[in-house]
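User: Hello, can you help with two protein structures?

Assistant: Certainly.
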Amino acid sequence: MISRQTIETIAQDYLQGTDLSLVEVSVSEDNDIEVIITREGGVAIDDCVALSRHIESKLDRDREDFSLMVGSAGI
């Protein structure tokens, strides 16, 4: 199972230096990963896509299969 802390670390590394903030990370026993971000003024879909691609690039699907959803409370 992929740990919540691993996903938080990957996301925080990406978000550092941006005006985006991490709100919540959850990982189920089946490796269903959900990451919620926010920004004053709203989050664009492109922000979610970019973070999703970054997280995926740091994980190895050959080791563990997972599903990933990055979103915002406003999307």
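That covers the first. Now for the second protein you mentioned:
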Amino acid sequence: MKRWVLSHRDSQETIDRIREKLSVSLDIPRSAQVSSAEPSDGVIFVSLDKRYTFIETGEETVPFLGSHETLGLFPSARVDEGAIKFVLNGADVMRPGIRSFDDWGEAGRLVVVREEKKGRGIAVGRSLLSSSEMTRVQKGPSLKNLHYVGDSFWNLYKLV
């Protein structure tokens, strides 16, 4: 496994790239240190100032579910008890299983999937519909499951 700390300039470039790519507001000082770990080829865990953790693969950057502060940056959707076992097996989130959701605007945004009772993050998905379409639709897929508790990313993080 490779680990490294980025230089100040590279840290700023990484922070700016993540801000722009994910459309999030990161509360990080200019002196923030960015470190990375690559437990497997093509999978890099990026830690911003030891507060926010993201997973970067070749084509995707997603928040890591074990980083509660990172999950707070994204809108969420709460799913009922019946949907949890399917989501934790990698299934996309279907509209009937969603009990409530934040306004995330356009389709394509990252959304944290939370269980209904305690609000814990169980998955991260990409919205297939805009939040206004979600209010009108009653069935069909709504969120593409990208990362969930117990998946390969979750298990790789144990090596970091």
